[in-house]
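fyi for ur records
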Amino acid sequence: MKYASIDVGLKRIGVAICLDGSTVLPQVAILRKNRNQAARDVNTFLKEWEIEKLIVGLPLNAESSEEMQRRITHFVSLLKIEIEIDYQDEQSSSIEAKELTKGIFRHKKDGKIDSIAAQIILERYLLK
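which gave:
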């Protein structure tokens, strides 16, 4: 099965894929100008890679997690896809991504950290 994961943020959407059931690779993040454009870009990405299941990072048990959960589920509702969608706790995935990459590249706001966070989310999901 071909999996993809997204880490939905207000400015960027981190993306990762797993095509063989074991190796998860971060992809170029989707820059978010508005939610409709971002949803179209995610749809295009999923179709291009022929993704069969989408894993969405969702903050659980965190301050302000209710508001982010609402925003993320609303964003997912904008996706025009007919594949299975599952949610995975994304607690601290961005912090972990920053720690993993410390000293490897400068932490700019280019989406690399977001996509590595998406990679972590998908790896957690696959280990369940």
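The chain has one domain: 3-127. thats all i got for now
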